[in-house]
Design brief:
single chain, alpha+beta, Immunoglobulin-like, three-stranded mixed beta sheet, 52% helix, binds zinc ion
Length: 526
Amino acid sequence: MTDKTRNKPNFSRHLIAVTVAMVLSTCAENPVTGDRELTFVSERQEISLGQENYQPTQQSQGGQWKIDPELTAYVSEVGQRVAAQSPRDLPYEFVVLNNSVPNAWALPGGKIAINRGLLTEFSNEAELAAVLGHEVVHSAARHGAQSMERGLLLQGALLVTTVAARDNEYAGVIVGGAQLGAQLINTRYGRDAEREGDLYGTRYMAEAGYDPAAAVSLQETFVRLSEGRTPPGWLDGLFASHPPSTERVQNNRELVAQLRAEGYTNGELGEQRYQQRTARLRETQPAYEAFDEAYALLSDDKVEEAERKLDTAIAMVPQEARFYGLKADIALMQRRYGAAIESYNQALARDDAYFDYYLGRGLAYSRQGNESRARADLQASVDLLPTALAMNELGTMALAANDRGAAKQYFEQAATAPGELGARAQAAYMRLDVADNPGNYVQAQAFVGQGGKIQVRVVNRAPVDLTDIELELQASVGREGVRRAIAVRGLASGQSRDVDSGLTLPAETDPQTVQAQVVVRRATVN
Ligand SMILES: [Zn+2]
């Protein structure tokens, strides 16, 4: 392994697993479409991919909405009712995410999520069933797995979560294996997959007893929404992956006519039930609008106005953890660490399963010098969602505690982040690893030069400049062994230099009888 490959960011181990599995590709029938296709992501892999990435992907999209657990139960009921019509018996799961952007997504293996910001756009249960049916098809027809098989995922790409709240732009940079889930939900499946989603999703909802006409009214709503106001983040959501169009409306209309001809004529819309079961959601909507406004004000540096909006939101829905979380983020940004910790405590008292509160509180504790609490919180945040910011902070703390091995692992992960944070983490990693394994970075070879002088060619293979390189030449000429220390004060990255060892072979020595090796004892990154 050369030092170059050593220092590349680690790709997800899933992608590696998939690459290995490529050799084991099989030709199989797509369970939804009936098409024969080459697959190398097995069903077992699909299911475990979905299971492993479900939690971190939810975290990266705002975490679950916990104000009304009965809403999640309701969405699950509708989802399971539609999923039961799919030909694939996957471990389907449905959750509601605390996110105002109208969006829904599916991971392989039947792991599905819908944002509260989309649920507020439906007028009946059948429209919800249409969206969930569409997502069920993405899972059942292996659309996510196909993206992986076709190499559509960007290896090592960095994904920024939508909730990078505090002023530090790296707070939401996901590192490590959790990138895979974020990529899967941000990759466009393509038009064929979207058509399949509409086609079979609508069929499943009709088979489940819903009026398929809801698939048409839903698309009309989407077209209307996409033509109207476009709040920030809107286009990154549903409409980026599911572009609405009048063509889609028309296709769905024809599909509904066909389903009606097949006898699906008395399906239900479930309008009243939907209005009842989502009452709390609509009731709390103004509070989230105030919260979203606070967010926007904050990015315009209007901190005081943002805080006023947050207080309004808190007064309306005091149980919502996120409002306290943003309050805490503001305090952290202003270096009011005590106040930040207090607000994070209030957030965590309301929801103890969202990475951002632990990350923020961990940073606040760290700034206060409370290392044990900082470490516990940062670790808790990383367990929920690994971010570059948490990894870098943990690395710095591990280094301060003289745990070089742990520090290296943290820095190596944080080093995959873009910009200054990534560069700093990379430098910190290199400083440690060059000191521990100088031989991986400095290449040194002895050769016999003019006049029988033994010389050493030194090459710096590290991506950084090195100083204080110490080498030891171990040579044997005939029966005699010689050791000679060689020092190179500095060598730029990629440069090589020939250094005289000070040893000269006796005049009639056959160079073939000379054995020499060079050991790299030390190298330093400044
Ligand atoms: Zn879709």
